[in-house]
Amino acid sequence: MTDPQDTQFLPLTRRQVLEAGTVVSASGMISTATAQAQTQVTTSPSLPENGTTVHIACRVNGQPTAIDIDARASLLDMLRERLGLVGAKKGCDHGQCGACTVHIGGRRIASCLTLAAKVNGREVTTIEGIGSADGLHPMQQAFIDHDALQCGYCTPGQIMAAIACVKEGHASTPEDIREYMSGNICRCGAYVGIVAAIEQAAPQIERG
Amino acid sequence: MTQERTADRPRVDAYEKVLGRALYAADQPIAGLLHAMTVPATIAKGRIEAIDATAAQNVRGVVRIFTHEDFSQIKTTPAARGAYGQPGKGHQPMTSPVVRHRGEPVALVVADTLEAAIEGAEAVKVRYAPEPFSARMEDELASPEAQPDRQLSSGDAEAAFAAADHRIDVEYLHPQQHHNPIELISTTAAFEDGELRIYEGTQAASAFAGGLAGMMGLEPTRLRGVSPYTGGGFGQKNGIQEQSVLVASAAALLRRPVKLVMPRGQLFHTASYRPRSRHRVRLGADGQGRLLAGLYETVQQNSRYDGFACDHGANPPRMYGYHTWQGNDRIVRVDTQTPGHQRAPHEHPASYATECAMDELAEAVGMDPVELRLANDAQSDPITGKPYSSRHLAGCLRRGAEMFDWSRRIADPGALVADNGDLIGLGVACGSYKGSMTATVTTLRLFASGRCEIATSGHEMGQGIRSVIAAELIEILGVDPAKLDIHIGDTGHAPQHITAGSWGTGSVAPAARSAAMKLREELSVLTGAPLSEEPVHVQLARTRRPSLEVTVNTIPLGKDAQIIEQLRRGIPSTTGPEYPDFMAFSWIAHFAEVHVERSTARVRVKRVVSVADCGRVMNRRTAESQVRGGVVWGIGAALREAGETDPRFGGVLNNDLAEYVVPVNADIGAIDVDFIDQPDFKLNMSGVKGLGEVAMVGAAAAVVNAVYNATGRRIRHLPIRIEDLL
Asked: Between these two residues, A40 and A151, which has the higher pLDDT value?
């Protein structure tokens, strides 16, 4: 569909493109954050913070994390844009869809509605932090077994909500599960599988 | 081999997805990334007189503010949003001071951080010269097109209708609906390896390598479209977005990578949606319920400038053996953003109207609705006279009726009552969707280590296309799914065709299968003997070759080799439903049970049974999920979803997920799914017809018919809400 008559209003040459910027490898940013965390407090890379910043120290997936963060930043944007933890997803930024669900102190919250500054001194757990060294969390396995996902975009939020749903004691009946999982929208419509997955994983989590 | 056919395997990307490791377009780690935010127009029509960006420029962290003055050289080509491939159509915002719909971007603020970009965008002041407009088809300035968009006819339907024993003449209204995939539409433009790489969760990565390059005046080889995973598409992501070229151009001008995640409130105005439509249905039948006449006239609301078709009339005449048919589809133009394809774009609204009308006819004739449909089953198309490649709709109805226990239905509304006093209603409806395919260029590489790589045309948006590709490679080559790399959605690996219209499986399954068979042949030549039962990579290793690669071009039925060239140039080209010797459709029957609480009229869909004829089932587990998803969409359409246009300001009033209500977990009861699972080898070597779209067709009508059976209320608009039943 290219019109050969088009004027080259953005005359990019290969050299200019190469000069212009680089993409780090897929593992780059994430591995920096987590590799550092193994031995020391994770500090944010030298990202530009323009507004008023606040210093926060918290634990993210068990790792001590210290960061100077824009006071306007949401926890979701801190996780995704500063810490490279992109499992939590932005689906509405209004607390209406649940795709950004993470745990603070074991409770599920919408990280898009939570200011990053509020997690100072708190324990944050994301989808990246629930699996054990030897494999999947029972809820993750149950989601695979029951095909409780399609596009997968809402899935990290669904799984974090599902684990909390069990721990809150709201997973004893399918009706309860449906009700207490209704803050997480799955537009692909995998609800039947999600309920079945939670029913499978709940006894294992309760025993654990 | 046959036992593998409907294997119940985990979807191949489920592991990455449950770990949160699947990287979507907005998840790419890119150094030095700038963040962008759009400023939406606050008028529905008019001109921008002045943009005052002083305050915005003073926001700390703002790098640059782009307006139409920066982007006036961007071309609105047939690839632009809304053009649907037609010259002279489409509208690309920010290329001139003209505003053609509310909410279109009028400025793009780029900043070091997202927070600064948002604050900057809010600080941009725009002065407009507004013009009169109409945003709804019933309003004063709406413009009906003089000629129908489509018409189909067979015989003298008016005369047959006039002479029929039983006549139904009803009008149904379908609202505006918005796809709302949970992945927001994001565009990231970054430089790598001498090319401008566009990451967007799209169903059409080719649109970036080809279409976007044309809009920007670049060589297509300078751009690469990457859609690693699409977080739900449903048709909303099937082309270039209003934002795409703006972000790409900003990155090119700044020589820096730029990311824009469009807020959902703005997507209700910039992205596509299902337009409002009106459907007049007339059905005439004899005393035995035989369909003597079908007359179907529809009107659809389009934008002033789009090239979107109105095609409601394509499927209904193919559902049953109509003795005569007459239909036409018309367009009314208004001042809104352009609508587009949303899951079962015209098939869903058309099935809603015509399948509800069938329910009304069954009552008029005094027949059971399942029996009425069976009495009008057909094996050839009333319009073209061609036979169907395969049609097991009667089988879907019979098996579904048995699974659902349809025999307990009582025709008199409100006769079935639950223990708690709720009124129980049972409804049935059917659907169809064209059997369609497109071309692919597929490269398959087997390594002696057992690893296997395939690059082909397709996009993974949750429908399970990776699992379909895997199923064929497992069946033909016996490869280990854990050692399989599937490269799709990336123009850097293979030419990409738009993935939509339920042609994904019918295109990639034969592609993977023929590549795998070719690889077996070549391996057999290398080994000098027919292949044994040993794993293929072990046999390859014995030839002392590290790997073996084959490339195949698949050309769908009825097309010639020229389609490969079109594919390479990014020009969409598909087949179906009409082929030289037959018509091809997938078919489905849905049965719905609703419970209506008497005092509040709250409707609950307790159970749905759906039986589909989609040809061969490639993966039982993902196929069931796909049908359940389509049913959830049908329930949403029947009882929840409507975009409400504000006639005063031209915008969508309920532009978020709290006010635009989609089904949540508590809205969904049991959904039991089964398949006929008869391969259709007339259509392709894999025997598949397509499932994702047909899954939704008829589902809303089944719910609406069930609501009538419970309440005795014929509600002829969607969604049905409590106030309609009280």
From this structure: A151
Domain that holds residue B103: 25-132+183-231+237-270
Distance (Å) from the C-alpha of residue B231 to the closest C-alpha of chain A? Answer: 5
Phi, psi at B408, each rounded to 5°: -80, -5
- Tell me if B261 and A8 make a contact (CB, 8 A cut-off): no
- Partnered with residue B46 across adjacent β-strands are B99, B130
pLDDT, one tens digit per residue, over B243-276 is 999 999 999 999 999 999 999 999 999 999 999 9
ipTM of predicted complex? 0.97
Nearest CA to A24 among A33, A11, A16, A15?
A: A33
Statement to judge: residues B551 and B486 lie in one domain? yes
Same domain, B493 and B413: no
Whether residue B313 contacts residue B350, with contact meaning beta carbons closer than 8 Å, is answered with: yes
- Tell me the C-alpha distance between B680 and A68, whole Å: 61
Mean of pLDDT over chain B: 96
Q: Does B436 touch chain A (CB under 8 A)?
A: no
Instruction: Specify the higher pLDDT residue, B340 or A43.
Output: B340
DSSP B576-598: -SB-SS-B-EEEEEEEEEEEE-T
Query: By CA distance, what is B218's nearest residue in A?
Result: A8
Does any domain span residue B410?
yes
Position B6 confidence tier, pLDDT thresholds 50, 70, 90: low
pLDDT tens string B346-355? 999 999 999 9
Minimal Cα distance from A196: which residue of B? B670
The tens digit of pLDDT for each residue in B286-314 reads 999 999 999 999 999 999 999 999 999 99
Q: How many Å lie between the alpha carbon of A48 and the closest alpha carbon of chain B?
A: 7
Residue ending a domain, among B568, B593, B609, is B568
Beta strand B603-613 with B325-334 is unpaired
Pairing of strands A101-104, A123-125: antiparallel
- CA B443 to chain CA centroid, Å, is 27
Reported confidence tier of residue A50, pLDDT bands at 50, 70, 90:
confident
Q: Are B390 and B511 found together in one domain?
A: no
Between helices B620-639 and B347-365, what is the axis angle to 10°?
A: 70
Q: Which token pair is B426?
A: 């049972």
